[in-house]
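Design job #97: recover the sequence.
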């Protein structure tokens, strides 16, 4: 997934991205993932970690069999997750 730039809103001494909902008190040093980022304690019950999905033996479909195009830079990450 390509990273993007944050949409920063300043609230007093804090900065917040309206796109990913991350907050900072200092300089922003990372790019925006473009999707909502949840603190681990606040993850909604309908979202699961890769570890939880693997424990439940639920794996993503093989992109090759689905006819998806996977960039070379992502293939190694994807092959680790499909095992």
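Job complete. Output follows.
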């Amino acid at each position: 997934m390509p990273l993007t730039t944050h949409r920063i809103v300043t609230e007093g001494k804090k900065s917040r991205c309206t796109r990913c909902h991350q907050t900072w008190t200092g300089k922003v040093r990372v790019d925006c993932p473009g999707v909502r980022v949840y603190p681990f304690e606040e993850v909604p019950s309908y979202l699961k970690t890769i570890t939880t999905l693997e424990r439940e033996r639920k794996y993503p479909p093989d992109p090759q069999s689905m006819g998806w195009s996977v960039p070379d830079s992502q293939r190694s990450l994807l092959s680790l997750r499909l095992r």
